[in-house]
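Recall the central idea of this unit: under ordinary conditions, the amino acid sequence of a chain determines the structure it adopts. In this exercise we apply that idea directly, starting from the sequence alone.
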Amino acid sequence: MSEKKIYGLLGRKLGHSFSVQIHKSLGNDDYKLIELEPGELQNFLLRGNIGGLNVTIPYKRDVMAMCGHIDSAALDIGAVNTIVPGPDGLHAYNTDKYGFEYAVHRAGIDFSGKKVLILGSGGTSHTARAAAKALGAGEVIVISRSGENNYNNLERHSDAGIIVNTTPVGMYPDCPNSPVSLKLFPSCSGVMDVVYNPLRTGLVMEAERLGIPCSGGIYMLVAQAKMAEELFFSTVFEDSVIDSIARGLIADNTNIVIIGMPGSGKSSVGRAVARLTGREMVDMDDHITNTYGLSPAQIINSKGESAFRTVETQALAQVCGKGGRVIATGGGTVTVQENYPLLHQNGRVYCLSRPLELLPTYGRPLSMGPGGLEAIYRVREPMYRQFADVIVDNTNSVDNTAETIWREFNESIGDKRS
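Accordingly, the structure predicted from this sequence is:
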């Protein structure tokens, strides 16, 4: 009896990967993550039962010497990400270029004649360079840490029209950091980031704020996987499968974030949404109490509101980097602008609306302060609107509000280019 064929993603550290879920959606139930140290790579590739492999950091160039045939396009790029068995040994391809170009077209980004700045010089950078040239870029500049063009002389490229990030800067848990500020590039008309976790990197969120067409790495990831499966099994998938799988991934990994005035029902509604969806529920007040040993009220009473806001931001950074949760925030989360990208990177934000006369104040030190809820509301109302993707009325039952949120989430999530 012959050995079972091996399919999977080959890399060194793969805990963040969505690849198994994607390939299962394409019908490959045998696909798995294969973590190897550099010294193990060659012996693994000598196995006779390889069915099809994807290759990621740091091995996209290393495996080339171990393959009997390298596709001409992959050879030109200088990096491979897909390996299949052939009659003369392993055959290597690059499906990342196809994935990159698919994501560019979907985002509506025009490379024609533009100066393209590619951040990073690794294997994915080589792919982005080839894709940029194929898309008609006028000039392609690679930014590295120590090369002629580096992060200390970016001003010489302030006329760049397209920014592409191929570095891991901004990847979970280093989110929402960004390798550059788009303010340096007033002519920028498109942003591509190959990072897909979080769903929106710091770079992508800045592009969103500036109204610049942009794409994170999800659609590239799914598109390259689709082409890889076609090579694995000599089959063809319709391109429509890419958007379908990507929307599912986005939905599964998007947090449902609930904000609103103190006492507006965030925790109760959050628990109802969690019951309805089967998702993990994180109540930020409870999380802070369990993590720091003091409740928000105790921190505010003993150390002041400013100290509490610092703690709250630290806690949000820990919680919001992971997707697929229901997160009920504190009422004053919106008063710290730094919290917005933490919520937004993986989240769809729902603000609960409820008449002030229905909001309890007991045990809430800020709600019981000078001016009471009215004073708080006057200050925070525009902040809630700024943070929220959707405002939801919470004057009906908690279950009705939860159902409204879940219905809206399913109708809208994944439709935005992200």
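The first strand starts at residue 6 and ends at 11.
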